[in-house]
Write a structure and sequence with these properties.
Number of helices: 15
Strand order of the largest sheet: 6-11-12-5-13
Structural class: alpha/beta
Order of helices and strands: EEHEHHEHEHEHEEHEEHHEHEHHEHHH
Shape: globular
Distance between the termini: 12 Å
Oligomer: single chain
Length: 388
């Protein structure tokens, strides 16, 4: 229970549809804004610009299912989607800036790397989701890792690599990622009719011949999880080469990229020795594709303190989170800061919750109290307005 010290405004989360019991100040509005004031009918992210800032747009259900069925949206946001029965994203400055950069990019040049950074809960993952929708709408092949730290903290299974001595495979995690990749890109890959450029020998009886559809490579890694990590390495190398040849455009989007460089994982060998990220076969392919030595593509990465397994750092800056090795790997890159809500964004978000009848009002000073309690942090504001 939160009590405003300077007035009688009481915030008390409860179980019903009225999780907060205060009213917007007169300066804000005594009634929710209309849907037209909060939303834009422009649902094509390629057309989003500064005139759409702080407004919400709707991701079509079929598109959301294709891009995000296997990850990419924070769990708290997914619960909100189920509650509101719609997937609405706020159009924010970092996303609009990056869309503008991509529209002006010369893709014949080496791949640009953009790094989203900011404090916890400011919305880096949702900005990345907006950009994934843009890439999908522009027919980029998406190479998307929803959260690298899942591999480092909660690996489903480990096995000694049969092709790289001294390294460990994550076969089930690799197969799950290939399912995610296929779900996002199967229609586009079938349309582009991409073929593998060389023969891949998996065993004496298992071969993916040169000229086979690239989806055969993906399917082999899914059906034979033992080879999933090697299939990922082959797939990403093929995408780099075929992008450089102009056959396809590729968008690499990785959330929590700094986990690849954190010296601690929660994976141990049979001898109880902690495994470093560079000893996992999944690490090298994703570091290779985030290098600058290919073209017709773009890399959009996030760094996050929550991606660290241990030793939470005080600073959210890329230099600290990536450590020296990661910073030098990406250098040069374009840093893009994601901040807490601006005044306009905070107002728009509160009005959206009011419009969806997620919060209701009874007393004055409501908006000021929410702003004070949340610090205009998007995640904290969502939590304050959630039912319990």
């Amino acid at each position: 229970m939160f009590l405003h010290r300077t007035g009688a405004c009481l915030l008390r989360p409860s179980r019903g549809s009225i999780p907060l019991g205060c009213q917007l100040a007169t300066a804000v509005s005594a009634s929710p804004a209309s849907s037209e004031d909060l939303r834009t009918i422009e649902n094509d992210p390629a057309k989003h610009n500064k005139s759409h800032l702080s407004r919400f747009y709707t991701i079509p259900v079929d598109v959301r299912k294709q891009i995000f069925t296997h990850g990419g949206l924070p769990k708290s946001f997914e619960r909100q989607i189920q509650t509101f029965n719609e997937s609405c994203l706020m159009i924010r400055q970092p996303a609009v800036d990056l869309i503008g950069y991509l529209q002006k990019t010369d893709f014949s040049r080496p791949a640009n790397r953009f790094v989203l950074y900011g404090n916890d809960g400011v919305g880096k993952s949702l900005v990345l989701a907006h950009l994934l929708h843009y890439g999908f709408s522009q027919e980029f092949v998406l190479v998307h890792v929803p959260w690298v730290a899942n591999w480092m903290k909660r690996a489903k299974e480990t096995a000694n690599s049969s092709t790289h001595e001294g390294l460990l495979d994550l076969p089930l995690d690799g197969a799950a990622w290939l399912v995610h990749f296929k779900h996002q890109n199967a229609k586009l890959l079938a349309k582009l009719q991409l073929k593998v450029s060389r023969e891949y020998v998996w065993s004496k009886r298992e071969i993916t011949p040169a000229g086979a559809p690239i989806l055969e490579l993906v399917d082999h890694g899914i059906n034979r999880a033992k080879f999933s990590c090697d299939a990922i390495a082959a797939l990403l190398q093929e995408l780099k080469e075929q992008s450089t040849d102009g056959k396809v455009r590729t968008m690499v989007a990785i959330d929590g990229f700094n986990a690849f460089f954190h010296p601690h994982t929660r994976i141990f060998t049979d001898n109880k020795v902690r495994v470093m990220p560079d000893k996992l076969t999944l690490t090298k392919p994703f570091l290779d594709i985030t290098n600058y030595n290919w073209s017709n593509g773009v890399c959009i990465l996030t760094v996050d303190r929550m991606a660290l397994t241990e030793d939470r750092m005080e600073s959210e800056l890329p230099l600290y989170l990536l450590r020296r090795e990661g910073f030098e790997h990406l250098d040069p890159f374009v840093p893009v800061r994601v901040d807490n809500y601006s005044e306009e964004e905070h107002y728009s978000c509160v009005q959206y919750y009011l419009n969806r009848k997620w919060i209701q009002t009874t007393e004055a000073g409501f908006d000021k109290e929410l702003k004070f309690l949340s610090g205009q942090n998007p995640y904290k504001l969502m939590q304050l307005c959630a039912s319990v």
